[in-house]
Structures are given as C-alpha cells and as structure tokens.
TrEMBL record:
This is YlxR domain-containing protein. InterPro entries: YlxR (IPR037465), YlxR-like_sf (IPR035931), YlxR_dom (IPR007393). Coiled coil: none annotated. Residues 7-73 form the YlxR domain. It comes from the Bacteria. Pfam families: YlxR (PF04296). It comes from Thermus brockianus.
Amino acid sequence: MRHVPLRMCVACRRRRPKGELLRILMTPEGFRLDPTGKLPGRGAYVCPDNPDCWAEKKLRRFAGARAKALSEALWAHLGGKDGQSTHLPAG
C-alpha cells in the first residue's frame, strides 16, 4: 500500500490527503496557486471544496493583513468567476 501524505487546511484545521487540498504560495508578488504542489517555497493548504475555508477571518492565520485579498481571490478562482487565473494579486 502506498503512503498518502496528509496536510492540514489553514482555515478549518482538518487533515486531508495532500491531493484533495489546494496549495497557496506567498511570494513577493502576491499569492500564487500551486495545484501541482511542487513549486518551490513555503506554502499553505486550503480546502477547495469548502467555501467556509475561503473566509477572510479564517485565512488570517496564514496571510495576516493580506487575508482579505486572498479571500477575494479564492472566491474569484474557486467560485467559478475566473477559472483560468493561476496568479492571485497581492492586496
């Protein structure tokens, strides 16, 4: 049986297999989505299928003052308004 790495959502603190979560990197240019999970840098994970996890208040743990911008970008990307975007603006 193959080992499946578990990661924790920064918003709801639920542990899930890494492949079920969306990785977000914080870069000097802003936030960047990493669906492959292989881009270099420190990242955090968020549940892509749970809109409660995209709330600004729950993202403050990871993004601090930029949580509002990250929340809006997640809503735009995962909410279906802008499904093509892979680079999130810094706020």
